[in-house]
Structure formats: structure tokens, C-alpha cells
Design brief:
By secondary structure, the chain is α/β, with parallel strands linked by helices. The protein is built from 13 helices and 27 strands. Helix 9 packs across helix 10.
Length: 629
């Protein structure tokens, strides 16, 4: 500690809450220090990398392995801090805000100086809104990267690549029909790791010098409590992030954050992180990535019982007990099986129709199902119908990175083409995928840019591509704008029909005696569907009585016909009660896609329908009118 008189009193602190917390008249600093290690608190004037004061944290004053001091009186925003641990200067693992990380991708060489990165004494944001608690069955999720979402010139955002830029795009997301925005890591991850962390076992020459590989996505070492400074257009990332969350909430959209934790991460730290972001910023949920023993603890945490928690899978029987369910379904399974099985069905593989039927109806009472055709890891939806092989050469890893199991079909040509027949087939396959995703019973998730045919040029692992490859492409060509309008129509149709997003998984029986099962399958005969191994055709009827609108009236019955075969196939249609008839509401074989409500296309027969090759059709039961006779 310097000999100069300090402007604060140094008081024994409270060790039970690690990090920096506000007191009535200052701040409490608490730090875990391994036994036998020396430690001190370093203090800097705002904006300076010169240590003004160094306060020892002697071992004899620690509680267990925690050192804690209070500094009073002390104002937020005027001072910055670090710790010296065994002679090495380190930022606080629990720091709420960082100075010195304002430029994305800035290299951290040894010559930069050990004091350039400093923790900031933060002001707590004043939130105007609260979590929205939108049920899974009413949710449509949009996942994106804060920087990549608006960084491209065509985005039209003033504050490109920032929290403010995301907020500028709220009207776009609202018009699309989104109810939740899921953001890839927004905390202070280190996008340029040190060289030891970059060594990869599969490189041709492990001794060769390596250029830094950018960690654009953000899955890696991090300071989990601090909003990323380089994602802020302003000098206050805390306030800017909070304003974005309020903006989303005011537009009726939830904010869900991705967090990656290494397998050895302490469960207590994980809980502290989630509690902080939920209580401070009122975020609505978390997508938890990584493996560890912290999953059961988090799933059972009382503070998070109304916070959405996505993970690859939960043992809900162990969490809730046999045949029990929560009052609010907050756990959500990130359904990678939907992606794999539905991609195989989409491209016409054998042996997929029965599994596809299961994925399309899956919606357990105890756990939400997050369905998607594309995620950050793997091909985009447009690339899913354009490439069969990964093209990751630009990553500098000899195309050895990324998955080799993509379950995709290029429609006859690998990569870009001018062949009109191939381009039309690709567009049709995308319409098929969107219709299946938005008529499935789980919660649909859109990976940012897929709604406008975004491509990563065949790169299925663009983790290091902070450029046009990794950013959302806001081009306004004919095909992207047409697909955008089609996706809007898919979401609007889903929202208009509660039978497509029921609270519970269909039971395949008429348990309320409405005259038809809640969900039934049909084939060449109306009430008999043989899901044979070589079949690629599926007909499913959803009884409208089982889906109730907000005014309590019954929904329309719907018939979803999927033919992923390269030949046309005939399906029998169930006879409707009363004066109702089947009409075509959506048809992927038509570039129009959807027909306006009340103007659905007539059928030549009410007993059967011929489904063209590789086509999804949605029929709706409507009252007959004289013009139909």
C-alpha cells in the first residue's frame, strides 16, 4: 500500500458474496485467494493504467480462502481496479465491467502492459421492465450474434455490431413474428486467446508458428459478469445492454443469453453468473452450453424457476419425480435430434417417416422442445440445400474442423449455380423445411439470417469468421426477399392456429370425444397410415377442437401433407363433419406459398389429393359456400 493517505476508510469486508458489491457508502471487494498465495487490491483513477493505491489482503484476515475489504466513502465511475495475485496482475473474475476491451479482436501481446485491462466500479442499471414469462408453446425464438447481426453495411443500423444495433432491429424482428431473441455470448470473452490455447492436435505441423485464430463466436475463457465492451456503441456497456433488454421487453420479446461453461467450472460460480444477469438485467432465460455437474443444481434452483433454461437434455423424472410436471415449464431441451432427423427426411432418406412424425408432434409436458433446422454450429438453412461437403478452408485448419455429419443434399450441384432448375428446387426445399418447422408442436428457433437465405459459403464452422462469411447478409435480392415474406407467413399462420402449438403433446386419441383424435395419421386410405421403411409420405390431421383460440372458440382442423419422394403420391382425405370442406392454405410447390385467409385454393376432390414430388401442403377445413359447389 502506498504511503499517501487514501481518500477512503479501509474496513474489514463481507466475504459471503464474491466480487464487487455496493454498500451504503461505498463498495465491498471480495476475492478467493488460494491458500499460501499473496494478494492485494490495485486501484487506478478512471482512464489511467497507473496504480494509485495498492491495498494488501493479508492471509491472516481471510475467511477461509476469501479476502474481503470495504472502501468507504467511494463513488461509482471514478475508480478502476485489479488484483495482484502472487505477483501477477489479474482482473476480477466477478468484475461487472471492463476498461481496455473496447475494440473487438484487438490482440493482447505481452507489450500491451499488465494494467491496460481494469475492472470498473459499475453503476447498477435501473430496469423499466421485468421478464415476460412467455410459455414455450407461444414462443418463436430468433438466435443471433450481437456483432454479426448488424455489422454488414446492408443492415441499415447506425450502430453496427452492437447492443444498440440489435435494438435498432427490434421493429424488423417484431414484424417477422419473433417472441424471443437468443444472443450468442454477450459477456467478456477473449476473442484472441493466447498461443498455448491455439495449439490444435490435428494440424499438419504442430511445431509450426501459428497466427492468432479469432474466437468470433465467443465460446471459451471469459469474465462472465461483464457485458462485452466491444459490443457497446457507447462507453457504458452495462447501460446499453440494459436499454436493449428493456427495448425487447417493451416490444413483447424475451431476451435469452447463451453461456458456455468449461466442464470443470464450479457450480457455485455458474449459479452466481445466472443469478446476476437475471436479477440485474431481468433477462428471460439462458441457453447453457458445456458439460458439468451443475445442471441438476441449476434446474432445481428456486430463483430460476420462472427463467427459461435451455440445455441438450434433462432427466425430468429425476428433477420433478415420476409423472409430475412444473406449474411453469421453464426447462427446455435444445433438440439436436430434430435437426438431424428432419434434415434426413427433407432430403428423402429411407427409414425416416416414422421418426419425422415423432419429431413433429414431440412436446412433453415437463420440458419444452426447441426445434431447429440450423444453428451456429453447422450449415445454415440455405447452405443445407446447397452443399453436401463442408468448405472450411478459410478457417486455416486444412478443412479438418467442423462436423462431417451434416445430413444435407445439394439438389444436384455442389455450391453456387446458375441452373434454374436447381435453384428452384433449392427454394422449394427451403419452403418445405420452413413449413415443417412452423407446423411442429415444439418451439421453433430461427438462426439469424436464415429467413433471408443467409449463407456462410459452405463453411459449417465459421467460429473465426468476423467478416462477410460470419455476418448476416442483408442483401435484398429477389430470392431472399421472397423467402423472408414466406417465413413471415409461416409464423403468422402458426400463431393464428393454436392447434399447431398446443400446451401438451398430442395423445393420438379422441380423449375429449370431439369425433376425431387430436392428431391422426393418414395414407392412401383415410384412416390407415402405414409408415413403411421405404415410405417418404406423411399425412397428419390436427383436430381443431383440441386447439382453442383466445376467445374460447375452436380452431380450424388442419391437414399437413408431406411428400419428400421424387414422385407424386396420393393421400386420402378424412371426411369432415357438417358443411366443412378441405381447401389449400399453403403449398410449397407454388412460389406464392400461402393463400390469404378466406381465399384458400379449392380442391378438385374432397376424398383424395395428389401431392407433387418434394412438396409440403397444408389444408384447412372451412365452411362450404355456394361458390365451392
Amino acid at each position: 500500500m502506498t504511503k499517501r493517505k487514501m481518500p477512503w476508510k479501509v474496513i474489514q469486508g463481507e466475504p459471503f458474496r464474491q466480487g464487487i458489491t455496493r454498500t451504503d457508502n461505498g463498495f465491498n471487494f471480495a476475492l478467493r485467494v488460494p491458500e499460501g498465495k499473496e494478494a492485494s487490491l490495485l486501484l487506478y483513477k478512471k482512464g489511467s493504467n497507473k496504480v494509485e493505491y495498492e491495498i494488501p489482503l493479508p492471509e491472516e484476515e481471510r475467511t477461509g480462502e476469501v479476502s474481503a475489504v470495504k472502501l468507504e466513502p467511494m463513488e461509482a465511475g471514478k475508480w478502476e481496479y485489479n488484483y495482484r495475485l502472487d505477483g501477477e496482475v489479474k482482473p476480477d473474475v466477478y468484475t461487472r465491467s471492463l476498461r481496455g476491451r473496447e475494440r473487438f479482436g484487438a490482440p493482447m501481446s505481452e507489450n500491451d502492459g499488465e494494467h491496460l485491462i481494469r475492472g470498473v466500479l459499475p453503476e447498477k442499471p435501473v430496469m423499466k421492465t421485468k421478464p415476460l414469462c412467455i410459455p414455450y408453446e407461444d414462443s418463436v425464438i430468433y438466435k443471433t450474434h450481437v456483432r454479426g447481426f448488424t455489422k454488414q453495411k446492408g443492415s441499415g443500423a447506425r450502430n453496427k455490431g452492437t447492443f444498440a444495433g440489435v435494438e435498432e432491429k427490434i421493429p424488423y424482428l417484431k414484424k417477422l413474428g419473433i417472441t424471443a431473441v437468443e444472443l450468442m455470448p454477450v459477456y467478456e470473452f477473449f476473442e484472441v486467446p493466447n498461443h498455448e490455447e491455439l495449439r490444435l492436435d490435428y494440424r499438419m505441423d504442430p511445431k509450426a508458428p501459428m497466427a492468432p485464430v479469432l474466437n468470433y463466436w465467443g465460446y471459451g475463457p471469459a469474465l462472465y459478469f461483464a457485458p462485452k465492451a466491444s459490443f457497446a456503441a457507447s462507453s457504458d456497456p452495462i447501460a446499453e445492454f440494459a436499454h436493449m433488454v428493456d427495448g425487447l421487453h417493451e416490444a413483447g420479446m424475451e431476451c435469452i443469453l447463451e453461456f458456455y461453461f468449461a466442464p470443470n467450472t464450479n457450480a457455485g460460480l455458474v449459479l452466481d453468473v445466472l443469478h446476476y444477469w437475471m436479477l440485474t438485467f431481468k433477462v428471460d432465460g439462458f441457453h447453457l452450453m458445456g458439460e458439468g455437474n451443475w445442471i441438476p443444481l441449476i434446474a432445481d434452483d428456486p430463483l430460476l424457476k420462472k427463467t427459461k433454461l435451455f440445455f441438450l437434455g434433462y432427466d425430468t423424472t429425476q428433477i420433478y419425480g415420476e409423472n409430475k410436471r412444473p406449474k411453469f415449464r421453464n426447462l427446455g431441451e435444445y433438440n439436436l435430434s430434430f435437426q438431424q432427423d428432419m434434415r434426413r427426411y427433407l432430403k428423402g432418406d429411407e427409414g425416416c417417416v416414422e421418426t419425422a412424425a415423432y419429431r413433429l408432434r414431440r412436446n412433453p409436458a415437463a420440458c419444452g422442445q426447441i426445434n431447429f433446422f440450423a444453428d451456429h454450429d453447422g450449415f445454415t438453412m440455405a447452405d443445407m440445400v446447397t452443399y453436401e461437403q463442408k468448405h472450411n478452408e478459410e478457417n486455416g485448419e486444412d478443412n479438418r474442423d467442423g462436423s462431417n455429419m451434416n445430413f444435407t443434399w445439394n439438389c444436384g450441384v455442389e455450391g453456387p449455380t446458375r441452373k434454374r432448375t436447381v435453384l428452384k428446387l433449392r427454394e422449394k426445399q427451403l419452403r418445405n423445411a420452413w413449413l415443417m418447422l412452423m407446423t411442429a408442436q415444439g418451439t421453433p428457433m430461427i438462426y439469424g439470417g436464415d429467413e433471408r437465405c443467409n449463407t456462410t459459403r459452405g463453411n459449417n464452422n465459421s467460429y473465426c469468421q468476423d467478416n462477410e462469411v460470419g455476418w448476416v447478409d442483408w442483401n435484398k435480392n429477389r430470392s431472399s426477399l421472397k423467402m423472408l415474406e414466406f417465413v413471415k407467413s409461416c409464423i403468422a399462420f402458426r400463431n393464428a392456429h393454436p392447434v399447431l402449438h398446443m400446451k401438451e403433446e398430442p395423445r393420438l386419441m379422441d380423449y375429449k370425444s370431439y369425433g376425431a383424435p387430436d392428431l391422426s395419421y393418414h395414407g392412401e386410405r383415410a384412416w390407415f397410415a402405414q409408415m413403411e421403411y421405404n415410405s417418404r409420405v406423411l399425412g397428419a390431421m390436427l383436430c381443431g377442437e383440441y386447439g382453442r383460440k383466445q376467445d374460447g372458440t375452436a380452431d380450424d382442423s388442419l391437414y399437413i401433407a408431406c411428400n419428400m419422394h421424387w414422385d407424386p403420391h396420393e393421400l386420402a382425405l378424412p371426411t369432415l363433419k357438417g358443411e366443412k370442406v378441405w381447401r389449400v392454405a399453403a403449398d410449397s410447390d407454388s412460389e406464392q406459398g400461402f393463400y390469404p385467409a378466406g381465399e384458400e385454393a379449392e380442391l378438385s376432390s374432397q376424398r383424395k389429393i395428389m401431392i407433387p414430388p418434394r412438396t409440403v401442403m397444408v389444408l384447412i377445413a372451412v365452411e362450404s359456400s355456394p361458390s365451392m359447389e
